[in-house]
Every structure is written in C-alpha cells, then in structure tokens.
Amino acid sequence: MLRPDGSPIRVLVVDDEEALAALLSSALKYEGWEIHTAGSGMSALRLAREVDPDVILLDVMLPDFDGFEVLRRLRREGSTVPVLFLTARDAVEDRVTGLMAGGDDYVVKPYSLEEVVARITALVRRAGIAELAAPEATVLTVGDLELNEDSHEVRRGGEEIQLSATEYGLLHFLVVNERKVLSKAQILDRVWGYDFGGRSTVVELYISYLRRKIDQGRPPMIHTLRGAGYILKPGEFS
C-alpha cells in the first residue's frame, strides 16, 4: 500500500513506553510504511506538524498531557489526519471522549499487532490516502452535493468541504443510500465496521459534525426520523 505519489504511507506512533513503540514500529515497517515515533504530547505535536503523517497511533497516557489533548490541538489547527487511539483504559466514557476529541478508532491494550495493522489499513483506505486502481474517478451526486470516491473530495454548491476519515465514511454511507432511512445500528456496523463496543451516541455526534459542515447556511440534506434513524436527500430551496 502506497501513497498516490508512490511514496510509503507515513505513520506517527506516539507512546511513552519505548518497548511498545519499538514493537509497533517494527511491525509497521514490515508493511513497508515510513514510521516516526514520539514519546510525549509536545513531541507528538511537533512531529505531526513536521512530518504531516497519513495516520497517527496515539497513546492516551503520556507524560506531559494526554492523547485526547494532543488530538484536540491538532483538530483546532485544522488537521484531519486519521487517529487510532491506543490505551489501557476500556471504559465506554474513554472511548466516547476519544471520539469527541476527533479520533477515528480505538484499540485497548493488550492488543495484537495484526489487529493494529488491520485497523490502520482500514483508516488509510477510508481516508482515501492509498493509491487506488480505478482508471476513472467516480463522483456521486445528490442535489448540489458531490462526493469523489477516488480523491475523497467533497463539495456542495461547488465549495470544497474538509472532512475527517470517519466523517467521510459516514457521509459516503448516507450518499450511497440516498433517500433511505438508516438506523443507528446500521450506521455503526457499516461506518465503524466491526464490534465497536461504543454507544449509539457516537452516531449522533458525527451526524452533528456533518450537519455543521454540509448543511450549515444551506437547505438541509441530513434529516432525523425520530425513532427510526437518518436519511439524506437533496436540499429543498424555499
């Protein structure tokens, strides 16, 4: 798996446990990826700005400030890099905190290296970072909303909209099911793609993110059907 320019996927591993960081780095280098490591929140922020990684593996417990704060700062700077949280804490509240900070996935220690590699690969593909083999771009259109499946560019009314990997995955699922009601359970299963273990409130959270980016100041396209789920359809001008 390579970037569109043929260079290796860039991964930033953030963990203050040197042995774990080294083990993760070795496993990821075996995949042919370019690996950078950081052992604190400050060094993680510095490397994220310098290296511009394609994906970040981010430990929650760091010596200066936690991984949630690292990601909050990156998101405030406008970064949409996919983030996989690594943590020893398995509480639902921690998972929700990570997602609310802008995280895309969550793995609890102890984890298998195969699982971490699989989840990183899924994030990279979902974000459209890896080179795709399709000869022509496929653009999905709903009303004035356009979604390019190759480049993952999203536009509404000709204006480009920046989305995180998870936001794009959610919007894509809504678009390919235009005018169909999708339940929270269906969305969790399709967008997160496995036994996520979180609460359905994460769907409400990401729907609110999309509405702010897609619908704000425009005729709404994303609608809630109380007790049933969500539906996307062309915005109607009054």
Automatic annotation (TrEMBL):
Q: Name one GO molecular function term.
A: cis-regulatory region sequence-specific DNA binding
**Keyword annotations for this protein?**
Cytoplasm, DNA-binding, Phosphoprotein, Transcription, Transcription regulation, Two-component regulatory system
Keyword DNA-binding attached? yes
Q: Where in the cell is it found?
A: Cytoplasm
Q: Which residues bind DNA?
A: 137-234
Query: Where is it found, in Gene Ontology cellular component terms?
Result: cytosol; protein-DNA complex
Q: Which residues carry this modification: 4-aspartylphosphate?
A: D59
Looking at the record, the residues that make up the Response regulatory domain are 10-124
> In the UniProt record, does the keyword Secreted occur?
no
Query: What biological process terms from GO does the record include?
Result: positive regulation of DNA-templated transcription
Q: Which residues form a coiled coil?
A: none
- Domain OmpR/PhoB-type stretches: 137-234
Q: Which SUPFAM superfamilies match?
A: C-terminal effector domain of the bipartite response regulators, CheY-like
> What is the name attached to this protein's record?
Transcriptional regulator
